[in-house]
Amino acid sequence: MNGDRDALTLAEKVLAILELGSFSATYKYALFTAILDLCMEKGLKGLSDPTVLTTTELAEKVIELYWPHAMPYEGKVVLRQGGGRAGSQAEILRAIEGFRSDPRNASGEILHRARTAHPVAWKRLVHEVEWKLIEMPIPRLQVSGSGEDRFLYEYSWNQDIKRSTVREHQKDVRDRFDNRLTLQPGVAEGLQALNGILRPLLRREWAGMVAAMNGLPESRLEEFLFGASRISLDEVRGPLIEIQGSQCLYCRKALQGAIDVDHFIPWARYPDNGLDNLVAAHQRCNNPKRDFLAAAEHVERWALRNVERAGDLRDVASRIAWQREPGRTRAVAVATYSRLGEGAKVWSAGTSLVGLEKGRVDAALSAWTWLPLTTPRASPPHPPPSATSRAP
User: Fold this and answer.
1) Closest Cα partner for 37 from 293, 265, 300?
2) How many other C-beta atoms lie within 10 A of the C-beta of residue 280?
3) Cα torsion through 202, 206, 211, 217, rounded to 10
């Protein structure tokens, strides 16, 4: 794909499958959002290939997306998101709910803690979700009224794939199953460019479907399902203040009065509670910043903090068992800012928006030492899936 026209063509096709595709559960929203997230995370050419995704990567990302949904809504019940009959639950969500409710896995509400404290149970959960993705939404996401159009990705298995085949693969018997999705040319770049448009649309449509399934008003559900406030950031406020020398990242004045923990790359653009993406800021600075991207001067200070205080950030993450994936955070920042044109409006201070100084931003992010993402294993080399390997 080349340029704005191809990105718009991709957007039109995505909207068509969301509008015309068959939906009995919210899996398609979760799968598409997972693909979008991985394209943002793996967006640096030469460092991580954003055109090849594995079903294991997708399973872990889908669990991350559904994790907050497996909590009771308003202290009552976990909201229904699918299932074959009224009152039943989508199998992926039920599996996550079971993992969360097992007292042997009790690690609070934070996914990172549960994953690291209970690796065996976590691996079983990933395998279960991976199978469900292989069986259901991956071969169905690109189906609309006119049949399957593999405009997003190719995959190698047929609709009659057996669980035993996937189970052997999950046990490291690698020669029978290719777990890769190969994105079509230009799709990764197109999704990165469309992230700011597609993400809020997906969340709104997803929340609308959950509201309809549960007979609830839609207005409050989006915040419950996708809001940044679902996990308290109080634990990291003190450590971040100390790391920043008691200075607000944005105005550089002494931190006094109401102090917020802000997502430097806004949550609305990509949900990242990783420690490198969190900064201590005056409430009077954070409130007007809202969901704007920050200006070059702020990017420079943020990147410099993450380089110079990397050891302190690592120690804090270890001490309080907090998520920290600097490679992912940096990749998302690069993918987000790289799609802006020179002079795009970004937040500077108060109500002031200024033109983006792209050269300064690029230099600041380039100076941030690259830490590669840890990616799940893929199958052994196979020829990329092609039209000749499609399911009938």
Assistant:
1) 265
2) 25
3) -20
Q: Which amino acid is at 93?
A: L
Mean per-residue pLDDT of the chain: 86
Distance CA 334, CA 361 (A): 9
Task: List the domain boundaries for the chain.
Answer: 3-228, 233-367
Residue 181, beta-bridge partner list = 53
- Taking a C-beta distance cutoff of 8 angstroms, is the pair 322, 316 a contact? yes
Partners of 57 in the β-ladder:
none
* pLDDT of residue 308 exceeding 80: yes
Distances (CA, A) of 160 to 84, 310, 378: 19, 48, 21
Single out the residue of 154, 158, 203, 147 nearest to residue 181, CA to CA. Answer: 154
Q: Which pTM value belongs to this model? A: 0.80
- Taking CA atoms, 24 is separated from 84, 187, 236, 244, in Å, by 8, 26, 39, 48
Give the containing element (helix H, strand E) for 281: strand 278-282
Residues with Cβ within 8 Å of 30's Cβ and at least 6 positions away in sequence, in order, are 62, 65, 66, 92, 137, 206
The whole-angstrom separation of Cα 13 and Cα 149 is 9
Q: pLDDT tens for residues 25-83?
A: 899 999 999 999 999 998 655 455 578 999 999 999 999 999 999 999 988 899 999 97
Higher pLDDT, 274 or 369: 274
Q: DSSP H helical segments within the chain, as ranges?
A: 3-20, 27-41, 55-66, 91-101, 111-117, 119-135, 137-140, 163-170, 187-214, 221-226, 234-243, 283-289, 296-308, 310-320, 326-338, 358-367
- Alpha-carbon radius of gyration of the chain: 21
Model pLDDT, residue 15:
81
Across 221-235, 277-291, 370-384, the highest mean pLDDT is recorded for 277-291
Q: Which residues pair with 147 in a beta bridge?
A: 144
- In eight-state DSSP terms, residue 93 is H
CA distance 325 to 328: 5
